[in-house]
Amino acid sequence: MDNQEKQAVNQPKKTGRGGKRPGAGRPKGTSKLYAFRADKEVAAYLDRQENKTDFIKECIIRQMEAVKSQKEEEILSQFGEVIPG
């Protein structure tokens, strides 16, 4: 028995059908997919947008900024009223 035959005996039998390999496949992304149902009016409006994904993301970002701004104003109002002099 030569050296190659000994190595083959010591290794598990391979099926030759691929399988999971380190580094193979598509890398995981940082985004998450969402799906929702829209009524007719919302669906019609959304369908008129050139890029629906960008439109939805921009709407959400604007809402997040508005909420953040409102919270900041509430925090500042706790310190009292500012009277310009």
What does this structure look like?
Residues 1-10 have a biased composition (Polar residues). There is one protein chain. This protein is an all-alpha fold and 85 residues long. It has a domain at 51-78. It is 49% helix and 0% strand. It is built from three helices and no strands. The chain has helices at residues 3-10, 40-47, 52-77. The radius of gyration is 29 Å and the shape is elongated.
Supply the key terms.
85 residues; mainly alpha; 0% strand
Regions with little confidence, pLDDT below 50 for 5+ residues: none
Mean pLDDT: 86
Largest β-sheet summary: none
Whole-angstrom Rg: 29 Å
- Work out the number of β strands: 0
Shape: elongated
Distance between the termini: 99 Å
Number of helices: 3
Strand content: under 5%
Helix percentage range = 40-55%
Structural class: mainly alpha
Written as H for each helix and E for each strand, in order along the chain, the element string is: HHH
Note the topology.
Elements: H1 3-10, H2 40-47, H3 52-77
Protein name: SOS-response transcriptional repressor
Organism: gut metagenome
Region (Disordered): 1-32
Please summarize what this structure is:
The protein is mainly α and 85 residues long.
